Amino acid sequence: MCLGVPGQILERLDDGLAKVDFTGVRRTVSVAFTPEAEPGDWVLVHVGFALATIDEDEARATLDLLGEAIAAELEPAGNKLFQEGRG
Amino acid sequence: MKYVDEYRDGRAAKAIAAELRTLVRPGSHVKLMEVCGGHTHAIYRHGLDALLPGEVELVHGPGCPVCVIPLGRVDDAICLAERPEVTLASFGDMLRVPGGRRRSLLEAKARGADVRVVYSPLDALGLAVAEPEREVVFFGVGFETTAPATALTLLRARREQVRNFSVFCNHVLIGPALRAILDSPETQIDGFVGPGHVSTVIGTRPYDFVCSEYHRPVVVAGFEPTDILQAVAMLLRQLRDGRAEVENEYGRVVRAEGNPAALAALAEVFAVRPDFEWRGLGAIPRSGLRIADAFADWDAERRFEVPGARIEDPKACRCGDVLRGLAKPYECGVFGTACTPEQPLGTCMVSSEGACAAYYAYGRHRRVA
Amino acid sequence: MTGVITLADGAGGKASRKLVEGLFLAELRNPLLEPLGDAALVSANGTRLAFTTDSYVVRPLRFPGGDIGELAVNGTVNDLAVFGAIPLALTAGFVLEEGFPLEELRAIARSMARAAQDASVSVAAGDTKVVERGAADGLYVTTSGIGLLDPRVELDVTRVRPGDRVLVSGGIAEHGIAVMLARGNLELELDVESDTAALHGLTAALCALGRELRWMRDPTRGGLATTLNELAGGAGATVVLREEAIPVREDVRAACEILGIDPLYVANEGKLVAVVAPDAADRALALLGALPLGADAALIGEIRADDIPLVLVDTPFGGSRIVDMLVGDPLPRIC
User: Fold this and answer.
1) Does C258 contact A5 at a Cβ distance shorter than 8 Å?
2) Domain residue limits, chain B
């Protein structure tokens, strides 16, 4: 329901603000809700406000799951059929 | 774009889709609701519905802040905008939403009202500072994702004593809406794809009641294609194993406790209304926010007269059923005829993430085919 | 039709089309107007000509990469060029607001002269009107143009066949984003310039394909999506695009993501869409790629026979979506 875009903090400014880079687009964003965010950190921005810092480890973990899904898909199909009676 | 493109991997999406087919019993019917309109939009934009097994039906939920604003509140905003001293600052989303007289802010603007599109409520405050002779009213809409931005803007307005700024507050809460859907006797939803960005603020705990009281699983999900498919897989696994838990697919930005600073700002600036009218769903207790008394000077509803009329949804429109998952957009009699994105009758056709608009734009040929 | 004009009526999408068909065509109907092309094709003493007109009301008058003067020349040159015409002469009509600085007017006239020279065309006649302060946004320009049709080609949307290929001459959405950001109230900083350019060089190169070149357009207001919907409707066939093949500069795409806008709906002022026979696609790409304006040219899709003419985008996920015409001016959204 709410557009959120990842961006990287370039520098902290006064007044709880920071300059954030979104793949070549820059905007001043409020980081009042992510006081821990430092330059170099990635944040999720919604209507000009950083709502969360992006957790690199968690991001990686999700990607690892995608990697596993691809690997599993390459395995023979027989061992992952739906097992009746477990539902 | 980092943290976006990696999650748009077509190969991974197809691999998860293959796994999904192993997670459903052939011939069964699983009804999942994606609560958030952002998910609806992403599903159609990326054509993800084609990747789901036939046994899985996705039902579009009420999580579109534009769609749930009742007609009377849109008329109130138009009334505010038509005051000669007022500049109404709004997100672009609200401009095309028709009010009770089928007129929108865009039309009010064409007739001379001063309506400006802003990206952030802070930009609306900036307008007020730059144009001290104008009364700038910010049209505040959105769930707990957007409300903290309004809250912080009001805190700043008070600190800087910006006296020509106020907020017309229409912020709503997702929890009570979910409960209203679960309490609706006709609704049979097996599990929920939980809203990702709302949860960055409120965390995952507010969904516990869905599991403990209603025994339905919830998986909070991100908005990229593999996020959504992964969440569906997690829901199907829970259903297969007979579990009903809150799980978090979107761990890269969602923490269980949410964002404490944003929650504190909400608590300071807003109070919960006894009830709030939702388009299509009717009045839901304790589901809307008003501006707290300490900020009364910045509350547009207290500074200006607004009609505050309650206007019935158009009879022919089945948005309420669509929002509760009782009807598909095309099952509505006016879908695509009296109600189109150019001339929306119902709220679900207005926002590009409304279920009807998304279906109209991206999906209608599949039903024909 | 009742009511009043809204901004959506001028945004180039469905609303514009409805206004043109429901009001102007209804009142002015004649065989030359009926195709509702950006230019009309007329014959005079056996000579085939393209004839077009366009008004420019851009705000701000100057934006990164160009100004209203350059836009007014290039836009009209392009409306001729995409019909396979070599531009011969333009006229310019100015509506000036009382109080408009002469220095600014001179700068705009100069950039018109420069653009005309680049396009090898002259501004052969003009007109000036002055209105009261507040009655115009500083300055409006209307340019009309006439061009000689290239005899080698026969460009007609009804000649488009299933299997034909769709090409675009470079990255989309740059003009619309540059202008949107230059208006300043979105507070986004981005080094993007309008792509305003005269396309007569690209179109002349493609005319070497002769009858294998089926149709060309410059996707301006309403973006690529709207132009391709006109193609689908005119050809009575479906246009199928491959999403990842459509060139969009990465930072422009990021700006679109932030604003919640689909780049397919954002205006261009210096891009060309061409439909060519299947066998001519590689040659067409080579012809475009040899010119600086076509360096990023790409094959983005093809024509497919279909009962319901649509524009479909195949996503990398094996699904597809319909890309409809623009419904109203693209507005930044939060959800």
Assistant:
1) yes
2) 5-62+175-241, 71-174+258-303, 319-362
- Cα of B293 to nearest chain A Cα, Å: 23
Q: What class is the B5-62+175-241 domain?
A: alpha beta
Cross-chain CB nearest to B25 (options A48, A52, A87): A87
Give the minimum alpha-carbon distance from C261 to chain A in angstroms, rounded to a whole number. 11
Residues C85, C148: contact at Cβ < 8 Å?
yes
For residue C119, count other CB atoms closer than 10 A to its CB.
23
pLDDT tens per residue across span B136-175:
999 999 999 999 999 999 999 999 999 999 999 999 999 9
Asked if residue B274 has a cis previous peptide bond (ω within 30° of 0), the answer is no
To probe the interface with A, which of C180, C248, C334 has the most A CB atoms within 10 Å?
A: C334
Q: Are residues C141 and C161 in the same domain?
A: no
pLDDT at B363: 62
**C256, closest residue in chain B (CA to CA):** B1
Q: Which residues of B touch A86 (CB under 8 A)?
A: 240-241
* Contact residues, chain A to chain C, C-beta under 8 Å: 1-3, 5, 22-28, 45-48
Domain presence at residue C73: yes
Touching A: B residues 51-110, CB under 8 Å? 63-65, 91
* Chosen domain end from C149, C176, C192: C149
Taking any CB pair shorter than 8 Å as contact, residues of chain C touching chain B are: 4-8, 14-15, 18, 185-188, 250, 253-254, 257-260, 308, 310, 312, 314-322, 324, 327-328, 331-335
The reply to whether residue C254 touches residue A25, judged by beta carbons under 8 angstroms, is: yes
Placement of tokens 């003493």 in the chain: C45
DSSP string over C228-243: HHHHHHHHTSEEEEEG
Q: What token pair was written down for B50?
A: 């084609």
| Residue B364: predicted pLDDT | 56
For B363, which DSSP code?
I
One domain, residues C182 and C296: yes
Assess contact for C243 and C314: CB atoms under 8 A.
yes
CATH topology of domain B71-174+258-303: Rossmann fold (3.40.50)
Token output for C250: 């990465």
Q: Does a structural domain hold residue C13?
A: no
Q: Are residues C139 and C123 located together in one domain of the fold?
A: yes
- A13 in contact with B at a CB cutoff of 8 Å? no
Total domains, chain C: 2
Q: For helices B121-130 and B147-159, what crossing angle results, to 10°?
A: 30
> Is C11 contained in some domain?
no
| B53-65 mean pLDDT | 88
**Per-residue pLDDT, C331:** 84
